[in-house]
Structures are given as C-alpha cells and as structure tokens.
Design a protein that fits this description.
By secondary structure, this protein is α+β, with helices and mostly antiparallel strands. It folds into four domains: 133 residues, LuxQ periplasmic domain, N-terminal subdomain (Beta-Lactamase); 63 residues; 57 residues, Helix Hairpins (Orthogonal Bundle), CATH 1.10.287; 154 residues, 2-Layer Sandwich (Heat Shock Protein 90), CATH 3.30.565.10. The chain contains eleven helices and twelve strands. Strands 6, 7, 8, 9, 10, 11 and 12 form a seven-stranded mixed beta sheet that branches. A five-stranded antiparallel beta sheet has the order 2-1-5-4-3. A hairpin with a 2-residue loop joins strand 4 and strand 5.
Length: 443
C-alpha cells in the first residue's frame, strides 16, 4: 500500500508538471502577450481527466511578480490574497510541498512563462496531498488480488494438510488397532514428505517388531513351561521308581543322585527367574565402588578356570601394565563375566580358546572383552540374544536353560552404569564387551 501510494504520488506529480509546462506554452501568443481563452481552458480540463482525481487541481496564471491574473476553475479571491507567496515564487524547486494554516499539506507545481528570454509570468498548479495519493482503483485491484491469494492459499493449505494428515490419521488408526491387540495392519508407503515417510516406516517397523515379540513370547513361554516341567517330570518318575522298589541297591542310589541333580537344576531356573524379576522391578541391591579391575578380572578368571571339570581349552587373560580403577560391584561383575565364560565354553569346538581383555577405550570407558573361537552366533539370532527367554536353535537342543543369562547380565551391567553388548560374532568366534565407568585414578 505504501509503495502504491508513493508510486501514484510520483506519477501524478509528473503529470501535473507536464500540465504546467503545457499550459505555460499555450498561454503565450506570438506577440508575447498572455492570452487566456476557451481553447486553453478546454486543454486544461482534458488533461485533468488523465489524473483520475476526485478533486480537480487549481491552476493559477500570474505575472512575473506573482499577481494572479487567471484561475481554473474560477474561484473568488479576497482582496490582499491575490498574490502567490514569495517563498513559493522564489523557490528553486519546480515541485514544492507547502504547509497551510489549517494544517493541511499541498503540493505546488510551477512552470515559468518566458518570451524572448524574458520572464513574463508563471503557471502554478496546486493540489492537496491526500488527493494525489488517493488510489481508489488500485485499492480495488489490491483487494481482488488479496482475495484471490487468500482463496489460493486456503486451497493450497487444504490440499497439503489433507496430504499430510491422511498418513498421520492412518498411523493413529493403526495405533488404536495395536492397542486392541491387532498387529495385522497395513500402511501405505506413498508419502513423499521425508518426515511423514519416516514416521510411517518407523511405525511399520515397530508393528513388525511387536508382532515378532508377541510370537516369540508365545514360543518362549511354551519353551519355559516345558523346561520347568521336564525336571519335575523326571524327578517324579525317579522318586516313584524308588518308592515302588522298582530299583534297589546301587541303582536306587544312582536314581536319587539323578533326582538331586534335577532338583538343583530346577532350583537354578527358579533362582534365575526370581533374580530377573527382582532386577526388573528395581528390587535388586547394587553396591558400586571403586576397585582395581586388574586384580578383580584376574581373580574371577582364575576361580572360574579352577572350577571347570573339563580343562580341554585355553584361557588367556590380557591385562594392561598400568592399573585400571573403575566403578563396579565386584559380586555382580563376577556374575556377568562367569556367565559370558560359561557361554563361551559351550560354544567351543576342538582346540578351543577363550580370551579376556581389559582395556580403556577411546570414549574414556573401561571395557572387558570376553572372546572365544567357537562356532559363533548365527546372524539371524544376533539381534535377539539379549531378549528374555530367547535361546538359539542349537542351544534349545544342546543346553537346557531358561535363556535369562545374557538379559540378566545386561541388566546387571546397566545397573552399574555400564553396558553389555555383542561386539561381533561370526563362524570364527564371538566377542562380548562389558563397559564400566572409569575413575580418575585410571588416567
């Protein structure tokens, strides 16, 4: 609006200057006399129409001293007010802005009337500023343009909002279905916006993950039930055989020994369940304190190796020359390392080797690697090794347990403000890494 007003003002002032110059040329005759006639009045009225003003300007023709001799339109001039002000007459600019006594502002455009290089009069055109800046026609065009832009903008926003909101509504409806337990959902992947596409993809991945976990939960629950039922059934049969005197003597004692082993295995399973539930519920005591990890790791490795009945493997402990001090619970750390060592031993083949390494990583963390050269973990099982009750296909057949060792160890590591991760695994072996908080003494 401001630009349009300024443009209209400049345009009309230029037209007034052109009108003043044309009037000064037509007001003088060949004899050098100023002649005002109907022809001049007609030309002035015709030119004024070009300006498209609500209020026509006042044109004054004066002598060289500013005495008014003609006005268009004709107006009554009081005695003593028939002369143009000297400040306007003597002003150097052909277009002047003048403040009136009533507070209004007008523009005065002047053009000299010369004959034979002699000044014989002046043409003055006076118009108030508001009339010059009036842009009624432009206002209409601007209103139409703004209205059109508003309609267009609303249409664009509506189309884009529908395009964006539709995938979000689909995701919201899918979330309701998932809340009801229905994981069989289908989402369109035709969203072009990157954020919406990522939202849809993430939700689909989450849904697939939930479906997989629900399936695993059912399978694992059945497996855990079977694993708990098996020793109970075995114990029941063995005890019943002893009670009914089906076996006697040394065989009777052997049956009782087998029953005791099954009872201890059942107790271990129940203890694992209780410990896992306890730490999941936050009812597990962790006593973290600063300790010399060189000594702790070496002692744990020595004690575990000494308790193994079969010694057909090599255990190598790699410790740095400089002592490393970290924050840990020695009892819980021992449980994590022993669980990793037991898993490593179960994975060993002929000429098996287990290696324990203690070092400080580049992230200012203390790491303990437990590495074996066993058969490794299949690629399709690596993402699930820390899932509760999960056991690989080979472990289901060879090792009888609940599948809580790694999940429980990871929770113990996190409770000590550390972590347990599967660093790498292939057919050449597996590496698990325990990370712990470093203390200033380790620097």
């Amino acid at each position: 609006m401001w630009w349009m007003q300024q443009t209209a003002l400049e345009y009309r002032l230029n037209l007034l200057k052109y009108l003043a110059d044309e009037t000064s040329d037509r007001a003088i005759k060949e004899n050098g006399q100023i002649v005002i006639g109907p022809i001049l009045s007609g030309i002035i009225n015709e030119r004024e129409k070009i300006l498209h003003l609500n209020k026509e300007p006042i044109i004054y023709i004066t002598d060289p001293d500013g005495q008014i001799i003609f006005t268009n339109p004709q107006i009554y001039i009081k005695e003593g007010e028939d002369r143009i002000q000297k400040s306007i007459l003597q002003g150097k600019d052909s277009i002047q802005k003048v403040d009136l006594n009533d507070g209004n502002q007008v523009y005065v455009v002047k053009s000299p009337i010369d004959y034979s290089e002699e000044r014989i009069g002046w043409v003055f055109i006076v118009q108030d500023e508001n009339s010059l800046m009036e842009i009624n026609q432009d206002h209409g065009l601007l209103a139409i343009m703004l209205f059109g832009l508003g309609i267009l903008g609303w249409a664009v926003i509506y189309v884009l909002s529908r395009k964006i909101s539709k995938p979000i509504q689909d995701v919201a409806e899918a979330a309701v279905q998932i809340r009801k337990g229905n994981y069989d959902i289908h989402l369109h992947e035709d969203a072009r916006e990157e954020e919406i596409y990522e939202l849809v993809q993430s939700f689909k991945e989450m849904t697939n993950r939930l479906t997989q976990l629900e399936k695993q939960r059912a399978e694992l629950f059945a497996g855990v039930t079977h694993d708990l039922k098996t020793p109970v059934t075995s114990i029941s049969g063995l005890v019943q055989a002893v009670k009914d005197d089906v076996v006697t003597g040394e065989e009777r004692k052997e049956f009782l020994d087998i029953s005791l082993k099954e009872i201890r295995r059942l107790q271990t399973m129940i203890e694992d369940l209780l410990d896992f539930n306890a730490i999941s519920a936050g009812a597990f005591t962790i006593k973290v304190k600063q300790m010399n990890l060189n000594e702790v790791v070496e002692e744990i490795a020595y004690q575990w190796k000494a308790t193994q009945e079969e010694q057909n493997f090599e255990l190598d402990v790699k410790l740095p020359e400089k002592l490393i001090f970290g924050m840990a619970d020695s009892l819980r750390l021992q449980g994590i390392i022993i669980n990793l060592l037991n898993n490593a031993k179960q994975a060993l083949l002929d000429d098996g080797k287990i290696e324990i390494s203690l070092y400080i990583s580049g992230e200012n963390k203390i790491n303990i690697d437990v590495k074996d050269n066993g058969r490794g973990i299949p690629l399709n099982e690596q993402d699930n090794v820390f899932e509760p009750f999960y056991r690989g296909e080979k472990k289901k057949l060879e090792v009888r347990g609940l599948g809580l060792g790694l999940p429980f160890s990871k929770m113990l590591a996190k409770a000590q403000k550390g972590d347990l991760v599967l660093k790498e695994s292939s057919e050449n072996g597996t590496i698990f890494t325990i990370s712990l908080m470093q203390t200033p003494d380790s620097n």
